[in-house]
Amino acid sequence: MGKVAFGLAAKDNSGVLSPFSFSRRETGEKDVRFKVLFCGICHSDLHMIKNDWGVSTYPLVPGHEIVGVVTEVGTKVTKFKTGDKVGVGCLVNSCRSCDSCSEGLENYCPKSIQTYGFKYYDDTITYGGYSDSMVCDEDFIIRMPENLPLDAAAPLLCAGITVYSPL
């Protein structure tokens, strides 16, 4: 059983978000748990909340522009420690063995796990950053520079990389 988390969820396609408590999975040996401090909103979040693409499952906790501070690390985590400022974008895991993953293109992995609204490998549903905490494999977490204000950092995890990537 995981740890209780609190967030804002769409319970149907009305567009309304309401308080929601749920279970975040336990921190695995390669996982980082962090307190969410800021989460941006992306237009794709709005599409998912309203099920515009026909793939949403409810309850749905949106948010994939997430930043916060590490509160717990798994026993085999090497990249982060408690107190680090971190961020997570639209992916929380991938298969690590397909051609795309082998080339460092996890975003093309056919078995990638999106930050919210998808089934994780243990059959739990992923919930996004409109919540008080996140748990994610360390390989999908980004360290935030100490001099970057976290409120300004959140949108960089989607819109920022979308603009930067083609450059």
UniProtKB/TrEMBL annotation:
InterPro entries to which the protein is assigned, alphabetical: ADH-like_N, ADH_Zn_CS, CAD-like, GroES-like_sf
Cofactor: Zn(2+)
A molecular function (GO) term: zinc ion binding
Keyword terms, alphabetized: Metal-binding, Oxidoreductase, Zinc
Gene3D superfamilies xrefs: Medium-chain alcohol dehydrogenases, catalytic domain
Name of a matching Pfam family: ADH_N
GO biological process: lignin biosynthetic process
Ranges for domain Alcohol dehydrogenase-like N-terminal: 28-146
Cited PROSITE patterns: ADH_ZINC
Similarity comment: Belongs to the zinc-containing alcohol dehydrogenase family.
This protein's name: Cinnamyl alcohol dehydrogenase 8
Organism the protein comes from: Noccaea caerulescens (Alpine penny-cress)
